[in-house]
Design goal:
By secondary structure, the protein is of the alpha/beta class. The chain folds into three domains: about 55 residues; about 100 residues, Sandwich (Immunoglobulin-like), CATH 2.60.40; about 190 residues, no CATH class. The chain is about 30% helix and about 30% strand. The chain contains eight helices and 17 strands. β4 and β5 form a beta hairpin. The chain starts with a helix and ends with a strand. About 5% of the residues have low confidence.
Amino acid sequence: MWFRAFRGRLEKAQRFLAFHYPLTLSGSVLCGLCLYVLGTAFATRNPYGFVLSAAGLFTLGVLVALGRVQARRFDGAETIWDSSAPLFARVRGIRHRLAAPGVRTLPFYRLHFCLAGPVAVGRQAVQRFWLDTPGRGGGEIPLYFPLCGVFHASAHLKVKDIFGLTRSRFGSSWQRQLAIRPALLPDREFFQIEALDGLEEKTKVKQSDIERYFMREYIPGDRVRDINWKASSRLQELVTRIAPVTQEKTQVITVLFRAIRRDGRETVQSIGHLNYVKSWFLLFLKVLKKQRSELQFRVVVGGLVRELESEEDIAKFAEELSGVFFEPPPVPGGWFVPGAGASGAQSTGDFFVFSTPYDETLAADLSLMTMGRVHLFRTGFAEKASDGKADASVRLFPDWAHLLYPSGWFLRRDRPRKAPSLTVSGRTEEAALEVKLV
């Protein structure tokens, strides 16, 4: 009991210091150096050292006092962090907006927006994010994330001098959970995107059948210009043309996303493969929807089923996919939820499976699928490819700035393994993937 009370008081003291401590890291170093010089000057009776150290401490005191006065004045000002812009991994130029119309700092001071927090890029893999960007009365906040995942963001405002020696926080902090969607994979990296065989209905209808189908008896109120006089003279009764009804019916295809790994160990390679297959999966949905607007998707992820009918549904699903990580294999057959799909739509009978080389139970689960054709898309290790060449590469940290905040998974590696050969009734595409740090 006493330990919990002590820990609670310690956490409260840490929060108090984090909010009220007035010096930055460089300011703390300068303050310590001035105190050391001051003590040495007293011991050696050095007047020059005393004057220099006293001047440094006085300057720090003035900067702290002015910053604290401004922070107290801004404490009730209206500030808005607009985080509505969607976040995508490996996309530069994404910006959130900060509005602080009532904040006007003194000369030699700037308003700073501080954003920090862990980004969950795997079930046991976290990347630390930290950003401190200046602004004057608000402005744009540039954001860049090399990996998709879930960002547990904490943001606050503070006043800093232009020398970066003092800081004065004010106002309350923002706590938000932001989805970082998978990277936008270029079309050229997706292999052989095309309309898939078996999804198109090809029927031959006689012209006479079409003509009979698109006409009916005249009903008072029909437009005179719609009357088919030629057919009416032949049938000895008035018939009118009606608007054609399209023969294209809504079709549903089932797409299964498998993020399965027997052990829960996150490594550099596993994070890279999972990020790439997510991007590949989303590109597949978007391209097919663009090619065939009447298509709908029945997506199975981790035993959950999602019905995606429009491009907006696919965009919303991308946020949910950001938080999908590797999980242990379920019971045999437990990963697949049978069914025809959306109500009023026809199932094409084709199943599309996206997976990684870590999926050791894929062959056994596919053997349970006896209905329809199965098309397989999966990633593989470039070192184990037949020609030893990579079809695509993933750089987890495109610039050195993000190497400062990884966790333990950053040091773990996987030995390249060859994915077991599978025979499916449909097409099989494998992307030999090369994962690099930088």
